Amino acid sequence: MKRITIKEIAKKAGVSVGTVDRVLHDRGEVAEKTKKLVLKIAKEGNYSTNVFARNLKLNKTYKLAVLIPDDNEYWRTQKIGIERAAKEYEHLGIQALFYTFDRQNLGSFLENSDKAIKEEPDGVVMAPLMGKESPTVCARLTENDIPFVFVDSNISQANPLAFVGQDTFQSGYLSAKLLNYGSKKGLSTAIIIYSDYDSKNKTLRERINGYKKYYEDRDWDQALVTEYIVENKSFFSQEKLKGVEILFVPNSRAHQVCMDLGEGREANYRILGYDQIQPNVDCLKNGSIDFIINQNPQLQGYLSVQTLYKKLIVSSDVEELNLMPLEVVTKENLAYSNSSFY
Amino acid sequence: MKRITIKEIAKKAGVSVGTVDRVLHDRGEVAEKTKKLVLKIAKEGNYSTNVFARNLKLNKTYKLAVLIPDDNEYWRTQKIGIERAAKEYEHLGIQALFYTFDRQNLGSFLENSDKAIKEEPDGVVMAPLMGKESPTVCARLTENDIPFVFVDSNISQANPLAFVGQDTFQSGYLSAKLLNYGSKKGLSTAIIIYSDYDSKNKTLRERINGYKKYYEDRDWDQALVTEYIVENKSFFSQEKLKGVEILFVPNSRAHQVCMDLGEGREANYRILGYDQIQPNVDCLKNGSIDFIINQNPQLQGYLSVQTLYKKLIVSSDVEELNLMPLEVVTKENLAYSNSSFY
DNA sequence: ACCTTTTCCGTTAACGACCACGGAAATTTA
DNA sequence: TAAATTTCCGTGGTCGTTAACGGAAAAGGT
Question: Which strand ranges, in their side-by-side order, compose the sheet holding B327-329?
Answer without folding.
Answer: B225-230, B189-194, B246-248, B270-274, B291-294, B327-329
